[in-house]
């Protein structure tokens, strides 16, 4: 009999947010795959749970995934946890779940807290339709591409950010989204939990004086009714130029930019300088 993989959500700050099912699952599985075994050991100690831990993170996911699946195939049950919140959401786990399905291993969900949804619920911004954008890339080109693709986004957008990068991210938001009213949630479920609604420029001024803790930024979508996923020729040229700079031919760059923006390739091609 094969075992199962359980994806288990853990608190994002307040340990009382652990669910009864999460505790039961962590107690009952044979081993736990954890992003950082030291962080998970603290959580387990708090709840008096003793279990073998296997580290599973971005840079060992291939080998460890194979090992974990072998153990599950031999009949052991595994819980996958990350340092905080839901595994797979800006955290490791995606590859493991895929590997399990390829091997016909049953995967179960034990849902728990999540910073993005918690911040969205507190934001006072539209929740009917939203997009989760996670962390912006450190790489300038993909960061610009990501932001460019959201310029005309009409749904509420949810971003994760680290305190030392919040100012540069807010400055990029100012350039791409303008001075919109945004919501910034900090240290959710912890002692210093706070939610502030202010314009991007006010946020830059506020956090220039210092930013500590964990942040989620909620940006409302554009209110321009014509904007729904429309790109200008200028946007398309910018995309194409960045592809050429990274080594693609003008033709390939124009084609790729055309695919993203819906603008005719030849129009883009003749404007690449
Ligand atoms: N898997 C997690 C989840 O389900 O929310 C997210 C993990 S991601 C590596 C860490 C980021 O989530 C932080 O940099 C921050 O943006 C956000 N985050 C996590 N805990 C938070 C909290 N208590 N308050 C605000 N943001 C938090």
Write down the overall geometry: globular
SSE pattern, N- to C-terminal? EHEHEHEHEHEHEHEEHEHHH
User: What structural class do helix, strand and pairing data support?
Assistant: alpha/beta
**Heterogens:** S-adenosylmethionine
Helicity, in percent?
40-55%
Description:
The protein has 273 residues and is α/β, with parallel strands linked by helices. The chain contains eleven helices and ten strands. It has helices at residues 20-28, 37-46, 61-73, 94-102, 115-123, 140-150, 166-177, 200-208, 233-245, 250-261, 265-269; strands spanning 4-8, 31-34, 53-55, 78-81, 106-110, 130-134, 156-161, 181-186, 194-199, 215-219. Strand 6 (130-134), helix 6 (140-150) and strand 7 form a beta-alpha-beta unit. Helix 3 (61-73) crosses helix 4 (94-102) and helix 9 crosses helix 10 (250-261). The mean pLDDT is 94. Residues 12-13, 82, 84-86, 89-91, 114-116, 160-162, 185-190, 214-216 line the site of S-adenosylmethionine. S-adenosylmethionine (SAM) binds next to helix 5, strand 7, strand 8 and strand 10.
Explain briefly what this protein structure is.
The protein is of the alpha/beta class and 273 residues long. It has helices spanning 20-28, 37-46, 61-73, 94-102, 115-123, 140-150, 166-177, 200-208, 233-245, 250-261, 265-269; strands at 4-8, 31-34, 53-55, 78-81, 106-110, 130-134, 156-161, 181-186, 194-199, 215-219.
